[in-house]
Write a structure and sequence with these properties.
With about 575 residues, the chain is α+β, with helices and mostly antiparallel strands. Among the domains are: about 5-220, no CATH class; about 360-530, no CATH class. It has helices at about 5-30, 35, 60, 65-75, 165-170, 175-205, 205-230, 285-300, 335-350, 415-420, 530-540, 545-550, 565-570, and strands at about 40-45, 50-55, 85-90, 100-110, 115-125, 150-155, 160, 235-240, 255-260, 265-270, 315, 365-375, 380-390, 425-430, 450-455, 460-465, 485-490, 495-500, 500-505, 510-515. The radius of gyration is 24 Å and the shape is globular. It starts with a helix and ends with a helix.
Length: about 575
Amino acid sequence: MELDPITLEVINNRLREIVSTMEYLLFHSGYSTILRESFDGSAGLCDAEGHTVAASGAPYHLFPYYYSVRGVLRNYALEQMRDGDSFILTDPYSGGNLHVPDLVIVTPVFVDGAVLGFCVSIAHKTDLGGLVPGSSGAAAREIFHDGLLLPGVRYWTRDGVVKEVEAIVKRNSRAPEIVAGDIRAQVGCTRVGVQRLRELCAEYGTDPLRRAFAELQRLSERRVRQGLASWPDGEAEAEGWVDHDGVDLDRPLRLHVKLSKRGDEVVVDYSQMNDQVKGPINLRPQQAETAALLALLTSLDPTIPINDGARRPIAFVNPEGKITNARWPAPVNNYFGLTVVVYSTILKALARFNPRRAVGAAGFGGGAIAVGYRQTPAGKQAIQYEIVITALGATAEHDGTYPVMAISHITPHTPIEILETEYPVRVRRHEWVADTAGAGRFRGGPGTRKEYELLGDGLFTLRLGHQFAHSSWGVLGGQAPPPARAVLNPGTERERVLGPLETIEMRAGDTIRLEMPGGGGYGDPVQREPERVLADVLNGYVSVEAAREVYRVALDPETLAIDAEATARLRGRP
């Protein structure tokens, strides 16, 4: 029996409230800056088969829940699970985590002695072992170098934590108490989700909830199919480039995607992608599929709820051994930068079907840094793990947003006050940089410059997107932003330009400068209103020189007033 629409909508909003509560508790119970400041985590609900029903948090976590639940179900049948259990996964080859530090907790929801579904949380960990502090090392050549692999084992029971498993996790971490605290935050938020779902079952009954799980997925599927059906049938191809894999530094990598749209279905073909590589930038299917799914929802309708119903109209051709489907035991720790390029390449192809929603590519080079300090002012070892933010590309109606991460729009900068309080580091500058946004009728978001001075010795790892030579792009006449750049000890005799993936020993007093690009532009820059160009110059986003040379807007160098006659001549108007 189907649910009536009003009851379904009430249950839907209650489910959304539950997952939002789980997310809030996760971020406000976490110990690490990566969780409580950068919000690199998520929480959600899956049905008894593992299909995502509702979720909140980092968008790129939400589709891979299915892989994690299925990973647990391969080890434990439903009949082997007990009320109060929680399971832990860190292995990207057996679960849905995107790399080893993205630890997953899966907690079954028991109602009347049977499993109704699962509450799931994915959250990045400060350190789970591996070659370097932060786990994601530049020298990784196999998954074993990335950290501790847990393939879906019981971590919690009705009696509390499984002490033997927790002891293994803590012994394999350079920040054991921080990591253990974050894991308990994940377990706690999923257990609150279990409690709230039971309360909802008590109000509406178990069978109506199961029907609601199925119906909400069906509604997302229907909206995706309706959107696809409104597009013209056909094929579209696009390519992007990545500098290298961190090993073969003179060999750029070609990324290629082909989309075939027929009726209300689409095939995403990765068969012409670069083969998997030696360095740690490979992807597993959960990463490659998520890039395509999120790009498709962006091009169709971003209000379509993210659940597994949205996945059903999409088929993938993704042969094993490609960089988008790495074969065991390839390393995958530096996945995010490549995922952003795959996502942007798919958006480029999707513009062929829906040019009204074409968007300039986000600023490439995003990723993270990790610094392992031998000693903090408190006399302890510590790991500063920080996500590096760029900016988004422009659309047909708006300039690019900044500072916002591609794909994960909820992730902010770690506040400087937090960094300087908790770690022996001084942030010497953090500022917008002129002419780092892709020019266009609508420009991309501007890029930033951030400079760190270490106040103590440490091991510094850059794991930025591999786009220091190949920048992103604009659309429909919009221009590309400059590429990313990193420099060690700038302005000194020891200055050295760094690559996107390096681990270096640093001493107190050493500095690193990160120059992050903005997003790509949309449309011809000469079509941008002179008043908007002037506002960008006054705000420091565009230089006077670029206003003239790129946007064809002449400004008085002293008053910065628009010279209307000179501007008309520059733009070829009488």
